[in-house]
Amino acid sequence: MVRVSTTPRRVTAVFVLVTALLVAGCSGAGQRPAAGPASTPATESAPPSSAPPEDPATKAAALVAELSDEDLVGQVLMPYAYGDQATKVSAGSAAGNRALGGVDTPAEMIEKYRLGGLILVGFSADDPTQTNQETTNVDNPKQVRELTTGLREAAGRLPAGAAPFLIGTDQEYGVVTRITEGVTMLPSALGAGAAGDPELTEAAWRVAGTELAAMGINVDFAPVADVLVTRSTVIGSRSFGSDPGRAADQVGGAVRGLQTAGVAATLKHFPGHGHSAVDSHKDLPRLGQSRGKLAAEAWPPFTAGIEAGALAVMSAHLDVRSIDPGVAATFSYKLLTEVLRGELGFQGVVITDGMNMPPARRYEPGEAAVRALKAGNDLILMPPHVGKAYEGLLTALRDGTLPRGRLVEAATRVLTMKFTLGDAPAPELSTLGAPAHRAAARALAAGAVTVLRGRCDTTGVRGPVTVTSSGGRAHTRAALTEALTSAGVKVVPSGGTVVHLVGYGDGAKDLRSDAAVTVAMDTPYVLASAKSPTLLATYSSSRASMTALADVLAGKARPTGRSPVKIPALPPTTCTD
């Protein structure tokens, strides 16, 4: 595994030098992009530098100096594509790709638009982000590995092919997890916050990075650095909790774990989606907090992630009234350039949230891409029409609407991240679900289990147990039943001590008044309405979390978690020692 980190001072120096050399450059009229040699190199040779030749920023600068306008524009685009293979897709997927960019396959999209990267999308149950997932690229790890291999082969034929191709996905664990089959499933971020041990978090996220790398993915759009100040369903258990300091520790651990395994971490959603309950997949949330309040409550996890070396930050579709009222952060120079870069000191890649979400679709794809780049984003994620976004950027570059220096800076940052990640051989797929990986997930899940009502030393159940749940959770009931049986607890279909499970989206109507134990497998707010004498929280329904819960119910483990969010009339834990 290769540990990756940023080199902000050197990167900044190179950006300044390259921009100075290239900002006055101009290219020819150019033609529609096609695979092949670059049409209009920005300069004849790479700029001089005192940095060692193997330095990622120096390599990026040298490559940028050789690229045409078409190539530079392509490097700042990271769309999605239809299909689960690079070069062969169904008729429906081909139609989708033609509507998105006038091509049939993902490989053709890469070649036509000289792309810097591609995001893999997919569906999972209880996913609050599924409204902007218009297709799915993932089925199982073997298929994903074959897909990413094909994508890299296509990108390797581009003029920028010396730099590793970026392939990203949203693998947060918990409700937003694109690849769920055949991988080690970690507990949710809120579960990690309940465990409160950054070393456990780092170990678990190192597992996540290793498994993503084995599937050919080198960018994870995680961890969520949002502080859960406002109760919401869109962020919810995706956050590490409501305490900025404790969340910051967890974010730092997740970043170190991912990037030790050679996968770029992405802090999201700056400047802090946890301060609004409005879903930016539907509308533009407004943050009414003062600048000082945001700095104290929302930004510490982002600062911690930056200090841990995070290679990327995702900008959010949020209207921050105290800083740039009426302007989504995605398009705000004040927030992205003056605050994120100027005040927080981030020098890596700024990536937009999905540009196919309603707040970004207020503009045509080309105009939106130009506005986002001028604000300080370096990578345009999921434009609703990649062809229009590409043409809009190229036209703006040539008519002066988009300053050349801004495009050069963005492309240099993207290529620096690529060279920082490198192209080391991917781990074998056999590493997925390895015993050591499962052990790391179990350790984090065990640390998360929390008692919010009932004595800490009497959570074990007596006699046969009947496991129930709100609707649609048969798979989770089966996992807990299996784990209880393995722990020596008899499980019966009815008539036993009722252990009732509630999860994402559940409310008071989903509780059982006769349950001896009620367990919250997502945010624990619903427990405030539960009447059970024993209330537990796992914050997650993963197999590791169900195993940890079974050990507590069997009296084999002491629950040591502490709720990372405040629940009316309930303590963070009843375990006081």
From TrEMBL:
InterPro entries: GH, Glyco_hydro_3_AS, Glyco_hydro_3_C_sf, Glyco_hydro_3_N, Glyco_hydro_3_N_sf, NagZ_Beta-hexosaminidase
Disordered as annotated region, ranges: 32-59, 557-577
Superkingdom of the organism of origin: Bacteria
UniProt-listed Enzyme Commission number(s): 3.2.1.52
Top EC class of this enzyme: hydrolase
Endpoints of the signal sequence: 1-29
Keyword Membrane: no
Record field: compositional bias (Low complexity): 33-48
Entry keyword Signal: yes
A Pfam cross-reference name: Glyco_hydro_3
Catalysed reaction, written as an equation: Hydrolysis of terminal non-reducing N-acetyl-D-hexosamine residues in N-acetyl-beta-D-hexosaminides
SUPFAM superfamilies: (Trans)glycosidases (SSF51445)
Record keywords, A-Z: Glycosidase, Hydrolase, Signal
Domain annotation Glycoside hydrolase family 3 N-terminal: ranges: 105-416
Sequence similarity: Belongs to the glycosyl hydrolase 3 family.
PANTHER family the UniProt entry points to: BETA-HEXOSAMINIDASE (PTHR30480:SF13), BETA-HEXOSAMINIDASE-RELATED (PTHR30480)
Official protein name in the record: beta-N-acetylhexosaminidase
Organism of origin: Micromonospora andamanensis
